[in-house]
Amino acid sequence: MLTKACLVRFMRVSFEVLLLVLVCIAVLNVCPVVWAQQSDAASSISLAQTTLVQCFDAAKAAESSGANVSSLMSVLNSAGAELSNAELAYSLGNFGLASSLASQSQSSLRGFISEADTLKSSAVARSTDQTLILAGSIVGTFAVIGASVVVWMRLKRKYGNVSGVKA
Q1: Residue 56 and residue 133: Cα distance in Å, rounded?
Q2: Which structural domain range is residue 99 located in?
Q3: Among 66, 61, 105, residue whose Cα is nearest residue 85
Q4: Residue 45: CATH number of its domain
Q5: How many angstroms separate the CA atoms of 160 and 151, rounded?
Q6: What is the C-alpha to C-alpha distance for residues 105 and 38, in angstroms, rounded to an integer?
Q7: Phi/psi of residue 42, nearest 5 degrees
Q8: Residues 34-55: pLDDT tens digits?
Q9: Is the pTM value of this prediction over 0.70?
Q10: Residues 85 and 101: beta-carbon distance below 8 Å
Q11: Would 4 be classed as within a structural domain?
């Protein structure tokens, strides 16, 4: 016969087993969600990193052509800070925030490359104009000097030594 103590013990063990089974089911159901969030966050961060590197390269090319890239650097700094915060959130296990910050970083860089290319093109055009102005000035200077020498020589031949002035 089952005594009251055995029945209580059986109920307690049954309850503990049932609780263990429920915890296992909950963990197994939550893990895929966490893994999916982690994967999404990792992919967002990776894409934001790639975009940031491409934008940095575009800004570097614009700067090397002589463009003023201070406005571009401000945008890059802001996007880099957001990406850094996304990586921090990821390392702390806050995958939703990490994904959100990485997306914000990437969206702040929309249109960046075209703006950098525009600045680069205008800097190249400005440099070309300055080169043409310099070359034109040099050619003009030599043309004036050459014409002055020719005029001086013709005047010297025509008038020679006038009224005792020695040339």
Answers
A1: 32
A2: 34-157
A3: 105
A4: 1.20.140
A5: 13
A6: 18
A7: -60, -40
A8: 556 788 888 899 999 999 999 9
A9: no
A10: yes
A11: no
